[in-house]
Amino acid sequence: MERTRRHAVPTRRGNANDRLGGVLLLLVGLSPLPLGSNRPAFWAAWGVVLGVIGLVYFLSLRARGSALRISPWRLPEVTILFIVLLLFVVVQVLPLGGLGYSPIQVLPRGLQLSASSISLDPATTSLTLLQFACYGLLALLFRQVGYRNSRADRVLNAIFVIIVAYGLLGIVLQGQLGALLGIPGSGSIATGPFVNRNSYATYLTFGLAIGVALAIGQLEQGESRRKRHRRVATLALIGAGLFVIGAALVATQSRMGFVAGLVGALSVTLLALAGRRLGTGIWLGILAVLLLGTIGMLALNGGGLLERVGSLETAGDVRVDLYRQVWQMIVSSPLVGYGGGTFEGTFPLFHQLPVSPDVVWNKAHSTYFALWAEFGLIFGTLPLIIVVAAAIRLLAARPSGPRLAAIGVIVVAAVHSSVDFSLEIEAVAFVFVAIVFLAIGAGIGAAEQRRDHA
């Protein structure tokens, strides 16, 4: 009887986390549908939904007399930096002019702008604060879901299936299956439900990294004749999913998305190779499959992508000119920036030839530059340090499928964010946070279980 009472609370808490995992999967799965959730109305809507989910979850824990499996302070390096970032965004919104302090923003050609707050658009910065708070809550909740390794594996598989489904949707909408299904295509470029090719490509490359990690996990399982047929069938399903993702990725014609996908898949493979849990022949086979798959995808539907590679030099010149002017914007307010989310409204003050005036430059086309322009060099670097801290914790954890997938996803995001803004799209950010902190939760849970059985 005493043992039953001792295990009652953890069991009920585990059931609550099972239900939480299902609800969060629904949120992550639906978020790409409304244009990748790239509109303020969707930010507010998902904020309300996520807030309700968190409130119900915390109240249910309180009613059961149980606590969080993983406290925010189990990751002090992440939690402290995140709180500092949130506080700074709050400061950007405050009407400091009413307190006797008037922030002076330096503009090109010696102009100065005296504003009542650090942010040139406090309303937009308030929405950015809401987004950041959502990401923090999502990270906390996915850590609870990932605590049990079996549940983390199930959730990771479900995220892979979701991304495969959106890959198939992109192929259908693009028109590759139009002749067979009678569905009119949207053109030669696949964007899926997203607003642009690059955001969709980043979303797909996350799935590519997950799929490679899942496949390696299946190969690393011990030899068992009874389970061999099931493992082969699972590998075949993963391979089919990777084929769909690869076909959709090539159809986006995203140059850097394609490169980031290859780098992410290769990083997962090399990280697993460092563990040397498979024979050399199997690793050579994996690398050969990746190479042949890449060549096959390009041969099948890579004409548009290869044509865009040919225009890389011209596009590079345009980006260099853009980045030069964005850097001017950064150094004009290097300490506090111009306010979260204000790039679209502030950059026109710096925009000049040779950057084309015929294009609306509402994004910096580099998440790193965007962070520094909006939050300054110090506070704009905090999100990068948080991701690095998460990566270090993952690298220190024991090998697992979620760990491999999360590191691959971080590599993909780091590479593609250097020249694009995919992580500024909320649906992409949701799945990024979900995978990374699911894996961190799994690592903490595995470590505690080993300690309990020691």
Automatic annotation (TrEMBL):
Could you confirm whether the keyword Transmembrane appears in this record? yes
PANTHER family named among the record's database cross-references: LIPOPOLYSACCHARIDE BIOSYNTHESIS PROTEIN PA4999-RELATED (PTHR37422:SF13), TEICHURONIC ACID BIOSYNTHESIS PROTEIN TUAE (PTHR37422)
Q: Which InterPro entries match?
A: O-antigen_ligase-rel_domated, WaaL-like
- What's the name of the protein? O-antigen ligase-related domain-containing protein
Membrane topology category: Multi-pass membrane protein
- Which compartments does it reside in? Membrane
* Domain of life (superkingdom): Bacteria
Its Gene Ontology cellular component terms are: membrane
Pfam families named among the record's database cross-references: Wzy_C
Report the principal subcellular site. Answer: membrane
Q: Where are the transmembrane segments?
A: 20-35, 41-59, 80-104, 124-143, 155-180, 200-220, 232-250, 256-274, 281-300, 369-392, 404-421, 427-447
Organism of this sequence: Devosia insulae DS-56
Residue limits of the O-antigen ligase-related domain?
241-378
Q: Which UniProt keywords apply?
A: Membrane, Transmembrane, Transmembrane helix
